[in-house]
Write a structure and sequence with these properties.
mainly beta, 11 strands, about 50% strand, seven-stranded mixed beta sheet, globular
């Protein structure tokens, strides 16, 4: 199993920035992809960004490109999400998730069902 703990959320004004962190522990050697999702009240969980641990490639939801930057530190088993120019519609609980399913090629999973382990989430509130 893999345990994930997010941190870094909080209250920020419109236009502000936050850096979210996710610490992974347990069987981290089985992780192939690490990603960020978010879920606003009464909305479905949506993909934000992910990074492959195999080749370091990153990919983003189209609506997240430009303001969000995902990064990782494999040595420390850490995942980060730098969020800039935040808007009230970015208000959500942000979740870290990992995919531990092996495929012979590098994938770009974007659906929540493709990730096996999840953190408890960190709340981000952007005030107008």
């Amino acid at each position: 199993q893999v345990q994930l703990v997010e941190s870094g959320g909080g209250l920020v004004q419109t236009g502000g920035s936050l850096r979210l962190s996710c610490a992974a522990s347990g069987r981290t050697s089985t992780v192939y992809t690490m990603g960020w999702f978010r879920q606003a009240p009464a909305k479905e969980r949506e993909f934000v960004a992910a990074v492959s641990k195999r080749d370091g490639s990153t990919y983003y939801a189209d609506s997240m490109k430009g303001r969000f930057t995902i990064s990782r530190d494999n040595a420390k088993n850490m995942l980060y999400l730098q969020s800039n120019s935040l808007k009230p519609e970015d208000t959500a609980v942000y979740y870290c998730a990992v995919d531990t399913t092996y495929f012979p090629v590098v994938r770009q999973p974007t659906r929540p069902t493709e990730y096996e382990y999840w953190g408890q989430g960190t709340q981000v509130i952007v005030s107008s």
